[in-house]
Amino acid sequence: MNRADEDEYRQFVTTRLEPLRVTAYLLCRNWHTADDLVSITIGKLYRHWRRVRAMENVDAYVRGMLTNAWLDERRRPWRRERSTDDVPDRADAEFPEAALADREDLLVLLSQLPPSRRAVIVLRFWCDFSVDETARVLGISTGTVKSQAARGLESLRLLAALDRAGIRARNGGEA
Amino acid sequence: MSYQTVFREAVGEIPPTSIDVEQVIRRQRRRHRLRRNGLAAVVGAAVLGVTVPFAIAGVSGPDLPASPASPSSTTQSARFPRPDPGTTFSATDLAVFAALSREAPDVEWITEDWPSDGDLVTWKSVGSTSPYFGQGPIRAGDRTGYFSMQLEQSWDNRVALCIPETTQENGCVHRTGPAGEKIQTSSNQAPITASITNRALKPRGMPAAPTSDRFVTSYRVAVERPDGTFLIVTMVADGEEPPLTLAQLTAVALDPAITLD
Fold first, then answer.
1. B220 contacts on A by Cβ (under 8 Å)
2. DSSP code at position B71
3. Predicted-complex ipTM score
4. Residue A125 lies in a domain
5. Mean pLDDT of chain A
């Protein structure tokens, strides 16, 4: 890569670092892993910068790279689910600050969705991708994107309702 | 409320990053060089495979080129960066240089052989109207690092660098400047490398173990001026002592002379 290309790459990456990290965090819910994913993505981007920069929507392509990097990482053996003695982190719904509990709840609920559905939700509603862009990035049909997005949102509502019912039961019928 | 707003609020505070873009670039350059050299070695071996049998048979083959001498690695620096041939610096560029020179008189701009693989690097900026982005390597004595500045009018992508109540250990401070500016500062020191495998196998909540004893130190200052102009100034150094202190970086960011054309 020549110097001008590299400067252009550097500027692109530096200004997009935070949005990319947030996207990665919404996918994996761990800032360490999010930084790893972004590092992997911008490394690949460097190698293919000349080709990528000529694309119509570079931002969409890079977020697609990031999402696919996450899906690839999840398939690796050390990323698979493991049994543990510790109870997984859960949002404390009785946290005194309702807003903080709510936002933590959303991340917990999001992390309970299957990976492909979570990727669709993040790309469609955080990255604001169109159905077509989401389908192209994930290599699936537009019909699948629509159904995954609808089911994802429905799952979030259902999980939220179950959580609220559980809280009511714990509180003796009062929410 | 849009979905994006809901997600942004759900994410909350964004912690300082351990990603060093310059190191990613260096790693990729090295990878490219190794691949290129590997290819050259394969071609060389193939050439030898052809020429040696000819030589053994008494037929003279072409002379092999002598190995080039290793390039010397001497870092040069200057009080001011130099513009690309045929170009001039913008008023914003010059204001940035003047602010740095005033706040950190010992800082010089690295003009050659940085980051040590022969590339000429000087101050590069894009646009003198919104958005403006400039970056370049600097040194103070033997401390080197990368300085960058972003400047935008009414920036939609502004983010909270940190929340002081929860990230005191990262030097996170929010305060008001002398002219009513909203100032956010944060500093972070992170191991340069910690492999994905190493991190993944760590129990939840445990810090990742560094795979080297080297650290990258980063300082970030975000300033929102009363007129809506937004600046982010960063200093990233490979080591524990960047060439600029956080106070010097903040003073540069608060310089009212740095404006968009």
1. none
2. P
3. 0.70
4. yes
5. 77
